[in-house]
């Protein structure tokens, strides 16, 4: 693994973190799951108690996290992201807590989308800690994602963006799309420009801690009256409603807050067909193929 790249290739395109330096990865408890080759990935078995505890701490601190100062957009207005290549589409993946860069639940979703449109996609992993200190790491993630989208809109006005997130990654994406007053993390890190909002083509989320039952973009076997551990207020993501699919199953203790300590629901997306469904949703929203 190289310090400035961690590069791999998807259909001839470079795949690397949004910011090129070594990611500080949390330890992963690995549990292999057998999947079809097109949608294969390793599923980390979450520690339910630790996950619930880390999410509950988001609302507990008496003082704001250090990242709120470090990534304050008014005090530090210079973007913390550099523009990526101006491909037709940019896919940004945001991993869940402890997932490795480039091998996460949404990796095969991104791969299937790229395979549908060879040569038109650039896939990058959002660089952020994705560890159990969600106040700190999540704040950084929201700032980096907002800046990346704003920078891309300015430098690549014809590029459309696709956002894919799982668990904490879904939390980060949702709060980046929301107004600062509706966020639990990243209230100080700035907002998406109008152009950046317009260029978002599709958003696919899995196991979202901020899942709100009853939204028009919700998909799955969830109980409508039950939200996530930290549910969003209804209508917060309404401007993006037709572009979002938020997947949640009824036994996922993260998007369906419960006292259950069964971890299996939160990783069931690897094998329940929802990865393929999410990819199909995005592919259905792609525009005409580029002329060669």
UniProtKB/TrEMBL annotation:
Pfam families, per database record? Cutinase (PF01083)
**Entry keyword annotation includes Endoplasmic reticulum:** no
Segments of this protein annotated with the region Disordered: 44-76
The stretch of residues making up the signal peptide is 1-40
Keywords recorded for this protein, A-Z: Disulfide bond, Hydrolase, Serine esterase, Signal
Record flagged with keyword Hydrolase? yes
Q: Which domain of life is it from?
A: Bacteria
**Where is the sequence biased in composition, kind Basic and acidic residues?**
67-76
What does the similarity note say? Belongs to the cutinase family.
> Can you name this protein?
Cutinase
Q: Whose protein is this, by species?
A: Leucobacter iarius
What lineage does UniProt assign to this protein's organism? Bacteria, Bacillati, Actinomycetota, Actinomycetes, Micrococcales
């Amino acid at each position: 693994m190289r310090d400035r790249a961690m590069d791999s290739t998807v259909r001839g395109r470079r795949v690397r973190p949004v910011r090129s330096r070594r990611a500080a990865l949390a330890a992963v408890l690995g549990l292999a799951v057998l999947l079809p080759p097109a949608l294969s990935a390793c599923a980390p078995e979450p520690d339910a108690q630790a996950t619930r505890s880390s999410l509950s701490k988001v609302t507990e601190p008496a003082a704001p996290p250090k990242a709120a100062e470090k990534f304050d957009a008014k005090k530090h207005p210079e973007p913390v992201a550099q523009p990526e290549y101006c491909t037709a589409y940019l896919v940004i993946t945001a991993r869940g807590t402890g997932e490795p860069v480039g091998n996460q639940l949404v990796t095969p979703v991104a791969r299937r989308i790229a395979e549908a449109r060879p040569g038109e996609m650039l896939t990058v992993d959002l660089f952020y800690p994705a560890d159990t200190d969600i106040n700190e790491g999540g704040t950084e993630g929201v700032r980096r994602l907002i800046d990346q989208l704003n920078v891309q809109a300015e430098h690549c006005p014809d590029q459309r963006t696709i956002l894919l997130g799982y668990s904490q990654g879904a939390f980060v994406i949702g709060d980046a799309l929301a107004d600062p007053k509706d966020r639990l993390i990243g209230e100080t890190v700035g907002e998406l420009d109008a152009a950046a909002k317009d260029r978002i083509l599709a958003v696919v989320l899995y196991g979202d801690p901020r899942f709100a039952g009853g939204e028009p973009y919700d998909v799955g076997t969830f109980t409508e009256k039950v939200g996530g551990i930290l549910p969003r207020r209804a209508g917060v993501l309404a401007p993006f409603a037709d572009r979002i699919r938020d997947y949640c199953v009824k036994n996922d203790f993260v998007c369906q807050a419960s006292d259950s300590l069964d971890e299996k629901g939160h990783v069931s997306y690897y094998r329940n067909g929802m990865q393929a469904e999410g990819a199909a949703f995005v592919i259905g929203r792609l525009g005409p193929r580029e002329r060669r």
